[in-house]
Amino acid sequence: MTTLEVKDLHVAIDNQEILKGVNLVMKTGEVHAIMGPNGTGKSTLSQVIMGHPAYRITSGEIYFDGQNLADMAVDARARAGLFLAMQYPAEIQGVTNIEFMRAAINARRPEDDPISVMDFIKKLDEKSAILSMPEEMSARYLNEGFSGGEKKRNEILQLLMIEPKIAILDEIDSGLDIDALKVVARGVNEMKSPDFGVLMITHYQRLLDYIVPDFVHVMMDGRIVKTGGPQLAKKLEAEGYAGLRDELGLDIVLTDENVDAGL
Amino acid sequence: MTKYQKQDISLTAAQQLPLPNFPKVKYASWHLDQLMPVQKAISNAHFLTAEDVGIEILGTQAGHQYLPQELINAGVLVMSIQAAKKDYPQLVQRYLSSVIPADQDRLSAQNLLQYNAGIFVYIPDNVVIQSLLQLVLVQNATTTGDAVQRILIYVGKNAQCTILQQLRTMGEATIKSSTVIEVFLDAGANVQYSAIDALSANTSGYLNRSALLADNAQLNWAQAEFNRGNMVMHLDTMLSGQGAQTHANVMAMVSQKQVQGINTRVSNRGRHTIGHILQRGVILDHAALVFNGVGNIIKGAKGADAQQESRILMLSKKARGDANPLLLIDESDVTAGHAASVGRMNAAQLYYLMSRGLCEKVARRLVIRGFMGPILAQIPHQVVRESIIEDIERQLKDAHQ
Ligand SMILES: Nc1ncnc2c1ncn2[C@@H]1O[C@H](COP(=O)(O)OP(=O)(O)OP(=O)(O)O)[C@@H](O)[C@H]1O
Ligand SMILES: [Mg+2]
Q1: Which of A117, B10, B250, B263 has the CB geometry, 3.0–4.6 Å to B279, for a possible disulfide?
Q2: Which domain of life does the UniProt lineage start with (chain A) (predicted)?
């Protein structure tokens, strides 16, 4: 069993505090979801766990299987079993998806024992089929010219190919049409096992109908303010974040409060 | 043809001509105008093998040479320039100096007077060559003696071909190199011209690759500069006829202590001509790279389009890079634009790759490849692309970073 533990994490960027004491524990075999208003630090949390160089941890720790991540570079974290499907994945022209995924797999193997071309292609075909991705996609340059939805699918393809222990999926559902959402959910569900844990950041309860979480966390103003079961997401959908805030007696200004849809 | 008449010139007159101008590159101390053109034949080097269509010149001798029968029947000529002078003197005479005037500058003029090796290609009107045509010049640096070589290519009306031309060194001796390449595209000709220049660290040299395009001719250059020594280079395209088009794609990688200056110029002379320059340069270690991009629209070239984009990636604090765009426009009814930048490694791309477990070294290599991506994407032949990627990888491995 692998554990990811975030302890009283404070993070700043340009001297502005964004995470203000996040606590979170998750284990393999579990499905977690984080919801929360725009700009409350969800992506920041995921990037800090992965090790993005732009963010500064001012206090607190992150442990992966008891090991302090502060001592590990981004690539070492990945090889230890962490994965982040990014909200905005980078595009790289000149490097094909195939080549990149092979390099990623081989980075986890001894240098003198790279995956054979046959095994690799077989696995790639199998995983692409789960995601209904045409073969040609992998021959294209990494994310280059991919539509929003295709990029998301490609992130999940990498997840299936790399098979990490713990994955964070940042808004993997945004920009997907209804059918694509089901396909992507199928991909994630395919990974489910006692040896795999997933943390999904999402704005929409709909995703959680397809990938049912064990825990739902609500993040506001740089903290996790409430944790519950799948019902919590349904309740948020019905009552909005202001309702929860008032119920918890929090002193937070929500940017989009009191806006009616103008219908 | 009278318009491009060759001028005769003497060695003394050549010495009086000015050195070609490479802004921001000081190269007078390389003494590229003092050549000792002695090259021995090499017998053991091979960049081409059995079925490769084309010719390989080893030192001064033709090595591998192969042309399928149907191309021979169609009147295609691919041979050493000496053989061509002997067997087809009028053809050589007609096109030699038709693109680069004999008195253009000291270094080209000296090449014209002193070259002792090279290649002649003649593709008659309407001939379409499907196979990749390979032209390889191997410079012999197993002993001292400078390499002075020339390539002359004529592509007839509506003829088409894809060329891969390489410049390579065998041996470690310190030599100088002078290479002048003239490409003449007659009306409606269409050529994909990829070049890999990979001369040794102990070679300093001058390279002038120039083309002249008649009406509606189209030339796509992809020039990969992987030379390890000090080089000054011209890539010069004259869009003479109306509707002529060129894409001048250049990638360069410099490392250790080398200096490279690259002038890439497109002149729009004909109406509705299109010239696009796209350049990517990577600098490692202490090296220096200068891109001088010139878009020159000549008076009367109504409807011409001149665009250029040059980007340099600096991978060490000691690297020196310069991208100078220049637009010289002498006509009002035209479109033109330029972009240039000198920057460092794309951090977002590096992070993304490393977040999948790639170690920094491999990730950096891929990001650098990605930076070259826009040029690689312009290269139609997979074989050529892969060969260029191999060269990139090799140089990155060798550099100190
Ligand atoms: N690199 C950065 N530079 C400057 N500000 C940043 C940076 N990254 C995050 N921030 C700021 O930190 C705050 C939290 O951003 P973050 O992306 O973590 O929010 P989020 O919860 O993921 O929002 P969303 O739901 O809109 O994706 C925002 O105010 C954002 O502008
Ligand atoms: Mg976000």
Answers
A1: B250
A2: Bacteria
Residue B322 lies in a domain: yes
Q: Widest CA span of chain A, in angstroms?
A: 64
Residue B252 forms part of a structural domain? yes
Residue B341 lies in a domain: yes
Task: Tell which A residues from 188 to 227 touch B, by Cβ distance under 8 Å.
Answer: none
Q: Give yes or no for residue A120 having a pLDDT over 80.
A: yes
Nearest CA distance, A92 vs chain B (angstrom): 5
Mean pLDDT on A56-81? 96
Residue B2 belongs to some domain of the structure: no
Q: Does A95 touch chain B (CB under 8 A)?
A: yes
Q: Which CATH number fits domain A3-90+164-262: 3.40.50.300, 3.40.50.150, 3.30.43.10, 3.40.50.2300?
A: 3.40.50.300
Range of the domain at B178: 11-345
Q: What pTM, to 2 d.p., does this model score?
A: 0.83
Query: Contacts of residue A93 in chain B, CB cutoff 8 Å?
Result: 370, 373-374, 376-377
For B78-112, write each residue's pLDDT tens digit: 999 999 999 999 999 999 999 999 999 999 999 99
> Could you give the number of structural domains in chain B?
1
Residues forming a β-bridge with A28? none
ipTM, interface predicted TM-score of the complex: 0.95
For residue A240, what pLDDT is reported? 87
Supply the residue whose CA is at minimum distance from atom 6 of ligand 1: A13
Question: What is the average per-residue pLDDT within A26-49?
Answer: 96
In this structure, is the dihedral angle defined by the CA atoms of residues A77, A78, A82 and A87, taken in order, positive or negative?
positive
The SS3 of residue B11 is helix
Per the DSSP assignment, residues forming a β-bridge with B84 are none
